[in-house]
UniProtKB/TrEMBL annotation:
<keyword id="KW-0285">Flavoprotein</keyword>
<dbReference type="GO" id="GO:0008726">
    <property type="term" value="F:alkanesulfonate monooxygenase activity"/>
</dbReference>
<dbReference type="InterPro" id="IPR050172">
    <property type="entry name" value="SsuD_RutA_monooxygenase"/>
</dbReference>
<keyword id="KW-0503">Monooxygenase</keyword>
<feature type="domain" description="Luciferase-like">
    <location>
        <begin position="17"/>
        <end position="243"/>
    </location>
</feature>
<keyword id="KW-0560">Oxidoreductase</keyword>
<dbReference type="GO" id="GO:0046306">
    <property type="term" value="P:alkanesulfonate catabolic process"/>
</dbReference>
<dbReference type="InterPro" id="IPR011251">
    <property type="entry name" value="Luciferase-like_dom"/>
</dbReference>
<dbReference type="InterPro" id="IPR019921">
    <property type="entry name" value="Lucif-like_OxRdtase_Rv2161c"/>
</dbReference>
<dbReference type="Pfam" id="PF00296">
    <property type="entry name" value="Bac_luciferase"/>
</dbReference>
<dbReference type="InterPro" id="IPR036661">
    <property type="entry name" value="Luciferase-like_sf"/>
</dbReference>
<keyword id="KW-0288">FMN</keyword>
<protein>
    <submittedName>
        <fullName>Fmn dependent monooxygenase</fullName>
    </submittedName>
</protein>
């Protein structure tokens, strides 16, 4: 079992100082945590945010800071040596494909080949409007975006012709250190989405709504990989653990360990803890990281 720590909103442990995230990253790296992730939004309208809170219990205030993930991960790369760098998840379709390919390749070069990016399409039409991009067609554009990135990363004469963008013999350096940058899609559990993953991605970042049917969905995902001529065992499955508290309001690590065990038995190979969601302060972070490490060995 691989374990990860999500550093989104972790500045709350450091009196609001965003640079404190680097301290948490270094702590996780020294402890041997496999993966570090953060989350993404360009912004919100007040109305769309209120709708999300009302309809889906969105847990973040409108005033919550959302640092740009690839910038954060580049800073993390400079203070870490081993931990892999990802997102849970990047709203990739808000970024031009050529720029996104350049950003990820640069991150991979700076980190020595430690990039492992989660991508999705988001839920907020107002976010697309503000970026001057169409909301419709975003799922297909995600697939094209990854295909274009792989062409730029891997081809000797990169050329691509898609619905929304095209290039011919376009060389963009640096290239990633890795021969194939792992990409996982944070999409709902459907056959259409699993086909998308099998065509261009490497795994699935599970949405909370899909956790109850995880085992059945993972079986279908792996069968889809086989149907596309890919090794079913190669499909990575990441799960962001729910936060559990006990009657006193303290972290219930036993309950979260049980959640992780259920995720593992359902086919997940990576579980991620969002530190900022725990009812703890900065002095408790080493204990949380130690718990992750114990989880890593306990669910091996």
């Amino acid at each position: 079992m691989r374990v990860g720590v999500d550093v989104f909103a972790a500045e709350r442990f450091y009196n609001g100082d965003s640079r404190g995230v680097l301290e948490l990253a270094a702590l996780a790296d020294r402890a041997g945590v496999h993966l570090l992730t953060t989350s993404d939004h360009l912004g919100f309208t007040r109305r769309s945010h209120a709708d999300r809170v009302r309809d889906f219990a969105f847990p973040f205030d409108l005033e919550q800071s959302w640092p740009e993930p690839l910038s954060v991960l580049s800073a993390v790369a400079a203070v870490t040596e081993r931990i892999e760098l990802g997102a849970y998840v990047l709203v990739a379709t808000l970024r031009p494909a050529v720029l996104l390919a350049k950003q990820i390749a640069t991150l991979d070069a700076l980190s020595g080949g430690r990039t492992r990016i989660g991508m999705g399409v988001g839920w907020q039409e107002a976010e697309y409007d503000a970026a001057g991009l169409p909301f419709q067609g975003r799922f297909g554009r995600l697939e094209e975006t990854v295909a274009a990135c792989r062409e730029l990363w891997e081809s000797d004469a990169p050329s691509f012709s898609g619905r929304d963008f095209a290039f011919d013999d376009f060389h963009s350096l640096p290239r990633p250190v890795q021969s194939r940058v792992p990409v996982v899609f944070g999409l709902g559990a459907s056959q259409r989405n699993f086909d998308r993953i099998a065509r261009v991605a490497d795994g699935w970042a599970v949405t909370p709504a899909d956790l109850p049917e995880l085992a059945e969905s993972v079986t279908r995902l792996r069968q889809t990989f086989a149907d596309h001529g890919r090794d079913p065992a190669s499909a990575e499955v990441q799960v962001l653990l729910p936060t559990r508290t006990d009657a006193a309001g303290a972290p219930d690590y036993d309950a979260m360990r049980a959640d992780a065990a259920r995720a593992a038995s359902g086919g997940a190979d990576t579980v991620i803890l969002r530190a900022s969601a725990l009812p703890i302060d900065s002095t408790d972070l080493p204990e949380a990281i130690d718990w992750l490490q114990a989880l890593r060995s306990g669910l091996a």
